[in-house]
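Onboarding guide, step 5: your first structure request.
Type a short instruction followed by the sequence, for example:

Predict the 3D structure of this protein.
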Amino acid sequence: MAIDFPAEIAALRSTFDQIEAVLDPSALKMKIADLETRASAPDLWDDQDNAQAITSALSSASAELARVDGFGRRLDDLEVLIEMAVEAHDAEVLAEAERDLNKLRKDLAKMEVRTLMTGEWDERDAVVTIRSGAGGVDAADFAAMLLRMYLRWAERHQYAAKVLDTSYAEEAGIKSATFEVSAPYAFGTLSVEAGTHRLVRISPFDNQGRRQTSFAAVEVIPLIVGTDHIEVPETDIKVDVFRSSGPGGQSVNTTDSAVRVTHLPSGIVVSMQDEKSQIQNRAAAMRVLQSRLLLQKKVEEAAQKKELAGDIKASWGDQMRSYVLHPYQMVKDLRTEYETGQTDKVFDGDIDDFIDAGIRWRRSLDNA
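The system replies with structure tokens like these:
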């Protein structure tokens, strides 16, 4: 069936015009000019937190403007390519145009998802914590599989990802792990991954080859920045130091450089062992603690507003995604109903379609 290229181009332009209205290239250019002026200040790096915030914002805004401008040029180029192919009756060039059209359609859908991330902290970097749940050694192994999945996802996109802390299980896998992803809209993107994940498979740790169901929890919080105000008095925290440990519990250094910070009023515990010094690990632990307290405060305020408004909506629920490896192969998101049978690709970090569906689903709840 022949493709109606003019109709397809018109549809893409209509959607792109709507996206462009939201992203507002003129406002982006003004924002970039302001950030460039601030970034060129001679005393910029006197305040490192502020300098990093400015340079990160400049990089993000510049990349976004380049995507918008680039897409417009690609649409124009495709129209020219189609006109040339039609005039020359060149089937090979038309086939190339069809491939370009499909790629443009896919890229436009991703750009559209970006316009749906308008939350207060969606632009922030993200701190992700994975914890093994019910299921014993299989759950610990599943938690390690999820950690690799997210790190591979970040690698696919060339996002900076840094593991901050890992607590290894005795037999295999991990009890928990915390990592940071630095990228534009990392929190807005990954926040839809928060929840309980379930794995069903033949257990590699069961000598009778029985099917095992195991669970892991994923927590996603926005990274604290210098302009946030969350005071944590020293009297509210307990700090323990210990030696960093690797798989099987063996010590990976000879000094007590790892730090565990307990926030006494809330019971929140944060451990850090990635940095080389106790001072660096304490600073990293406090940053993550402040991020969790900031999010907790926001959740409490939102809950109070809902209660006052009489708006009682169901939460996401305990289980948001199932990974089934036996008796069939299927990964399914129980909120969006998106699913795929390509389980190997999912565990290798190919989760963009799940994330995009989650962002659209979340927006549909906001608009309900």
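Each response can be followed by summary notes, for example: Residues 19 and 295 are 29 Å apart (CA to CA).
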